[in-house]
Amino acid sequence: MITSRVLPGARVETLIDGKFSLATDQPAPIGADTAPSPFDVFLAGIAACTAYYAQRYCRKWNLPDAGIEVDLEPSFDAKHMLTDVRMKLRVPATFPAEHLGGLLKNAGNCLVKKTLDTPPAVSLDLAVG
To answer: How is 54-95 classified by DSSP, letter by letter?
Structure first.
């Protein structure tokens, strides 16, 4: 279970399965900019998951994963709504060319990215007390 609780200012602490705590804040002037915003965490999750799936491919084929990076660049419309997420999988020049296609395909299987391809319904209910 994931539980988020509001803290003073615009800070929020999120507890994940009782094992992890994640702090978020909003940029100034709304917040104090002491932690990433929740939306930054959302975008970071896409990049981190993609990098993990690239790493997983490398481990399966016993390939070096040092130097592999995922760059993520979001695009927004005039109302600051996310319209596009462009990622680039960067590999060292020494990465085996015959594995580039497989690496890219496997990285694209990231569960977070695939969830966005077919987004789930999200509901919000009110609990008082």
So the answer is: HHHHHHHTT---TT-EEEEEEEE-TT--EEEEEEEEE--TTS
